[in-house]
Amino acid sequence: MTLEMINLSEIIHRPLVDDANDRIGRIEDLVVRLGDSPHPPVVGLVVRIGGRDLFVPARKVVSFSTHPVHFAGRRVDLRRFERREGEILLAKDLLARHLINFVGGRLIRANDIVLAQLDGLCEVIGVDPGRRPLLRSLFRGRVGAGISRSGVVDFASIEPFVAHVPSAKLRIPYRKLSKLHPAQIADLVEAASHEEGEEIIEAVGEDLELEADVFEELDTGHQIEFLRSRTDEEAARLLERMAPDDAADLITEVDQERRVGMLDLLPEPQQSKVRNLLSYNPETAGGIMSPDYVAVPDSATVADALDAVRTSSAPAETLNVVYVVGTNGTLEGSAPIASLVRSDPGMAVQEVARSQPAHVHPTWDLHRTARQMSDFNLTVAPVVDAEHGHLLGVVTIDDLIELLLPQGWRREFGMATVEE
Fold it and tell me: What is the tens place of the pLDDT at every residue in 351-403?
């Protein structure tokens, strides 16, 4: 038997007839069972017969590509159709809805669904997100059969949203989401509806560290939106795992009556770090600095510095440079990680470090901070107390750029996450 391919839009509302070509009813939908298969099988049809929606097993259909569709059984079960666990309706639950395309981490809209039938088995093989299916629906019977399917996305790379489906216990698998960068997941959440975004966040929540990373990448509006549905205890657990500067930024956006309660629930030392950051203007170097970095005493060796990097829990973007501090915490020098790796482990770190390194002060605004980092080619800049020269934290280039770029820059500069 040859492989037959057909679009869902060409099946819905077709008549179902018996061997004598007498009309039995009209096809309203196709029933698919989600599971481990990358191309889920069609298990049946929902057929409107005498004002009732009845279930017809897919094995009793000769071919979906014929018009009308022929029923191969002797009789139709007259019990009303009821969903079973794990089943979804292609037209009702997927058509014209968003789905996640994990190739590139984008949302697509299922403007049509492509099926393949071979040896009596019918499977969902792809989704057409283009505008051509809209033309097919407008000019049914005159447009469609000859249209190329070159824009079809393989269903194996797709995951549907199913929280709205009463019978679907499955959710977006965490194992697939975890392969995306947190920024890609955040883009998906921001492009999705609130319900779809909640479904993504729920799946990501299986990994608390990844959930915190995704929250850091979300815009402020979405952060607040998802915090509203959480208790103070749940919010504090999330803030605990976020970078202190990102946690401080988020707390400043929370309603005043919740802010103190959430802060009090934060464990040490995260609470102290966040409270300290909140004392600075958020539009200054002090407001965006990270208190997590690597510093060693001026008596340390290169080996000591490398060990400090190896055992540090500071974010990777702050580890490009190891700072050398005096006994009273003053900044004495900075040693790029590349210079340390190339040096003799027994050398004194001061011999490798640059003395009087370029730095910024906590009261500097973002533009002055950016000019300093640009002038000295810094990807991470130490923030130093102007009065005593104490090292307070570091500003990373990614945090600075994110604040200097216009709101909604991802969409404005061609990174919109919805393909339609």
Answer: 999 999 999 999 999 999 999 999 999 999 999 999 999 999 999 999 899 88
Contact (CB, 8 A) for 174 and 203: yes
Which two tokens mark 173? 């698998």
Per-position b or e across 356-388, b if 16+ CB within 10 A of its CB? ebebbbbebebeebbebbeeeebebbbbbbeee
CATH of 192-282, one of 3.10.620.30, 2.60.40.10, 2.40.50.150, 1.25.60.10: 1.25.60.10
Q: Is the dihedral of CA 135, 141, 147, 151 positive or negative?
A: positive
User: Alpha carbon of 154 to those of 99, 256, 265: distances in Å?
Assistant: 12, 48, 46
pLDDT digits (tens, 9 = 90+) for 195-209: 999 999 999 999 999
CATH number for the segment(s) 295-403:
3.10.580.10
- pTM, 2 dp: 0.81
Domain boundaries, given as residue ranges, for the chain:
4-160, 192-282, 295-403
